[in-house]
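call fold(seq) -> C-alpha cells
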Amino acid sequence: METKEAYGILFKPEMIDEKRVMLVPYHIIDGIVSENGLIDRYETAYKKIRLSDKISDYDTMYGFEILDEELSEYYKASGYPESHYDYPDVCAKSYLNFAKNYIFLLEKSNFIEDALCYAINIKTKEVEAIDITTNLVAQLSHSNKKEHTLNENVELSTKNQLLTQVSLINPRVLLDKVTRRVVGQKDAASELIGTICKNLKYGNYAGMKSNILLYGPSGCGKTELVRSLARELDIPLVIEDMTSYTASGYVGDSVKAILRRLFISSDNNMEKAEKGIIVLDEIDKLASTDARENVNKTDVQEELLKMIEGAKININDSNRTNQQLIMDTSNITFILCGAFTKLREQLKPRRILGFSDNVEDESPKIEVDNNSFVQYGLMTELVGRVPVKIPIKSLEVEDLEEILSHSSISSLKIYEAALLQEDHVKVVYANKPSFVKAVAKKAHELGTGARGLKTVIDETFLQATSEIGSSLPSKRILFVSKETIDDPKVYTLRKVKKGNYELSERVRESNQ
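ret:
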C-alpha cells in the first residue's frame, strides 16, 4: 500500500442527548494514512469519526481528512512561498482556522447506519449538511459551495430549532466542562452552577436571586471556577480585587467603577451587563474587628450593600456628561471571594496533649455560619445579602496530581501542547506517573495550591525551552525525568529524522 501523508481535525465533544453530539474543532493532526485512519509520527493511531455515546472515544477520532497534496493546492493561491520550510504547517493552521468558523452536530439517522453531520456557521448561523469524513474546504469554501438544506426526515427540522438545542443550558453538561478545568472541587462547582443557573433562569423574580460567598485557601480554584462557568455560559464577568477600593471621597477606586467595568466588558450592552457576574475578590481584606485599624474598610462594605441587594445606580464617570447610564443590579450575581485564613485556622481540629489514642479534641466541631463571618469582621448586613456560602477545600498531593494529569488547563499539558505546536518538540518521560507525582509533591510543599504547579513546571522546563528556542523549529524529542524537577539541566533533546515516524522501543515504553 502506497503511504500518503494526510491531515485531520480533532474535536471537543458535548453530548446533547443519546442521538446527538456537538463537536467544536480545536486541534489538527498529521500522519500517514492507514486502513483505519491516521498514524502520526509518534505512532498514535486515530480513527475516522463516528457517533459515540462516550466522550472519551472522541480523544482518538478525527474528521475532515485531507491529503497533504490536496491541502497545499488549496492554499498555494494565498501567496505564501511553497519553498519555505514551514509551508505545510502554515497550510495546516489555515485549515484548522477555517474549521473553527463552524461547530458541527452529529446526529443518528433513522434510515442509514452512519450519522448525519451538520455544519453551523458561528457568525451567520447558517446550517449545512456535510460529510465529516472528507475534506472540509471542498464542501464549504465559497468557490465550491453547494446548496444544502436540513433533511426533512431529521428530528430537528429547522435551523432555529437546531441552534436552540445546541445552546440550551444543561447544568450536568456545565458541571462536566467546568470540572475538566478545575479539579478537586466538584461539590463546590455543583452548588455554584446550580445557583448561577437559577439566577439566570428566574432573575430576581420574587427575590429568587441568590448572591454567593466562596471561601477557602488561595490557589484552590475559587476565581477559576467562576471564570470557567462564565466562559461556558458566555456571560460578562468582572473580577475585582477589593483591596484597591475605598469609600467615596478617598484616594482609590470607588465601588461604582466595578459596574462601569462590567458595562465595558459587555461591549457597552446594558441589557447583557445587567445579567452578568461580579466577583468581589479578597473580600476578607475588608473585614476588620478593630475600629482603630481602618475605618475605611467598613465604609466600603456599606457602599457595597445597596449595589449587592439590587438597585438602579448611575454609573457615569466624570468624563461622561452627554449620556445618563443607569444600571439595574437586581439580576447581577455577586460572588464574594476570600481565603478567610484566620477563620479556617479556628475551625481546624485541635490536638490534645498526653498519651491518649485520640488524635483530635472531643469538643464539638465549629460550623461556619453567618455569625462566623460577622465575628471575622464583615458587616451583618453584607453577610445577610449573600445567602449561599460555598467552601473550597484545600488541595492535597493527590488533587494536584489529578490537575496535572486530567485538567484541561494543566500547566504540564499546556507546555506539551505549546512545544509540539510551535517548536515540533514531543515531550517524552522516563516515567510519567513518577514525574507527575514528584511535581505535585514539590508544589504542595510551596503551600500555594494549584498555582504552585506552574511554578514547579516553569522551573523544570526553563533550561530545555531556552535550548529549544535558540534554534529553528525541527522535529525533536525532549526526554525528561523526575530528576529534571530538582535539576533542570538533566534532560535530553534529540532530533527526529524527517519522514521518520518510527520511534525506538525506549521512546514508546517511556511515554506510556
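Residues 142-167, 350-366, 499-512 have pLDDT under 50 and may be disordered.
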